[in-house]
Write a structure and sequence with these properties.
Radius of gyration: 24 Å
Strand content: 35-45%
Shape: extended
Strand order of the largest sheet: 9-8-7-14-13-12-11-10
Helix content: 10-25%
């Protein structure tokens, strides 16, 4: 009886180990988050920027063709371009895009039109102009922490050290969202 109980315990242990091995070996492999080679555009110290930067060439309702900063022409599938691309898609505009590669095709998850982002923005407490080249010019001398630089990093807008999701970007509105809330800005005339 003692040998039979030991044999059952051994078989149970062996079955458990075999089952654990099968579970680990059959782990669901998700597609890699691959994108075209990135330009070294505005990297931060804590890692690599996964954003792809380029010029919008053409597209339809469900695709965007981008000429990347590295000279590659890449076609991205988009579910709803009008709502996914903050600031719209206009031929020749610079676009910052986050996406992945699945089944041999590039899929866009989020994009920001950098040309639409540039301009003079203000709310009741802040007034600043986002300019080309990562420069921000503040227009309120009494501001305690005026913005002086910007960049897109992993699809998010960074103003100085504050990080935001671009929740909405239209011809005259900019909504930025962070853990501190949603900030609504109105476009003003550009500074001369």
């Amino acid at each position: 009886m003692k040998n039979e109980n030991m044999r059952k315990a051994f078989n149970l242990l062996l079955t458990t180990l075999l089952l654990a091995f099968v579970i680990v070996a059959c782990d669901d492999k998700k597609p890699k988050n691959e994108q075209p080679t990135l330009s070294g555009n505005l990297e931060m110290d804590d890692g690599t920027d996964s954003t792809v930067y380029g010029r919008y060439l053409e597209g339809g309702m469900s695709k965007m063709v981008l000429l990347t900063d590295n000279g590659d022409t890449v076609e991205y599938y988009v579910e709803d371009k009008d709502s996914m691309v903050k600031g719209g898609c206009f031929e020749g505009d610079r676009i910052a895009i986050i996406g992945y590669k699945a089944d041999g095709e590039y899929v866009a998850q989020h994009a920001v039109n950098l040309n639409s982002l540039q301009g003079k923005w203000s709310d009741i407490a802040k007034s600043f102009e986002i300019k080309e080249g990562g420069v921000v010019e503040s227009n309120v001398s009494a501001e305690s922490k005026p913005y002086s630089k910007w960049k897109i990093y992993n699809g998010r807008l960074i103003l100085n050290t504050d990080t935001f999701d671009v929740a909405a970007l239209g011809p005259d509105t900019l909504w930025l969202e962070s853990d501190k809330g949603i900030f609504q800005y109105k476009r003003q005339e550009k500074l001369k």
